[in-house]
Amino acid sequence: MDTPRTIAAPSRGYQLIGWLIAAVWLGTLAPLLGRSLWLCELASHFRLQCALGGIVCLVAAAVIRRSSLILPAMLAAGLNAAYLLPSYVGTVAAQPNSLVLRAVQFNVSRINPTPDRAFEYLQSVKPDIVVLEECDQRWIERLQQARTDYPSVIGQPREDAFGIALASRIPLDEASIRRLGPYRLPAVIARVHVGERPLTVIGVHAMSPLSPRDSAVRNTMLRELAALVRAETRPVLLLGDLNTSPWSWAFGELIRASGLQDTRRGFGVQASWPAGLGPLGIPIDHCLVSPGLVVHHRLVGPSHGSDHHPILVELAVE
Question: DSSP character for 284?
């Protein structure tokens, strides 16, 4: 009589990798419900982390020689990588006679312990236009004191996280503060000429989606932003901490409704928050442009005491 064979229990390594793959798939599929479920929309910000998680699981499954885990890990990594791919392709060469505009978007953090370093950064990169978020009165005053660098300054200081300022080396044709969303948070709109070419610059800090209500407020602000852009007859440069990533349905809706383009294309993910995670963070600080503006260069700068990295872009105005 044959002795019954015993089935070996899965090893701890097998079980751990299996759970990790399940977690990666949860993060991969949850954003598909993001339009209707708040927490699922938040999961859309982590495509990079899910892609890396899938790769780690794939390597681990290969090391322990568990073929049953390799395919789901490979599919999870590949699906998330497909969302990342547009950030690495699609640059357009500018015409040689184009005028170049340099702009910085920087959430400086209202509790930044080293504001002097932030201003030293601006002095080093010498942008033509700067949009700063989380500005209280001290930040506005510092910009106004730098009249030789930025003769044109408009801002709305606040003691919470939604003060905003725009400073420009280029004279402003006109500028105003607009209120967006149910909370009437300030956004700045300025119209300038780059050479003889008109341009509208919009700076904004959208609500953080930390609750279902605040997420709805952010979405309303993004819809109102799209309406502002559509109403403009000039090309638009939109700079802001939008508190959403390129893989969110809300960001996609903003792009479709406004007709703007993401300057990130061709330059990588360029994570901007939280600063402590460096390239493993999420890209919630944005520079969006009308099709007539071509991106020469885009990079992420040092945080200089903020929890955000600044975004520096060089644009060719065709």
Answer: -
pTM: 0.92
Structural domain contains residue 1: no
CATH code at position 212: 3.60.10.10
Cα dihedral 147, 149, 152, 158, rounded to 10, equals -80
**71 & 103 share domain:** no
The residue out of 87, 116, 151 marking a domain boundary is 87
Q: Which domain holds residue 289?
A: 94-317
Q: Which residues contact 63 (CB under 8 A, 6 or more apart)?
A: none
Among 47, 51, 49, 73, residue whose Cα is nearest residue 60: 73
The tokens of 46 are what?
């982590």
Tens of pLDDT, residues 118-169: 999 999 999 999 999 999 999 999 998 888 889 999 999 999 999 999 999 9
Residues 171-198 pLDDT 10s: 999 999 999 999 999 999 999 999 889 9
Place of tokens 């852009």: 229
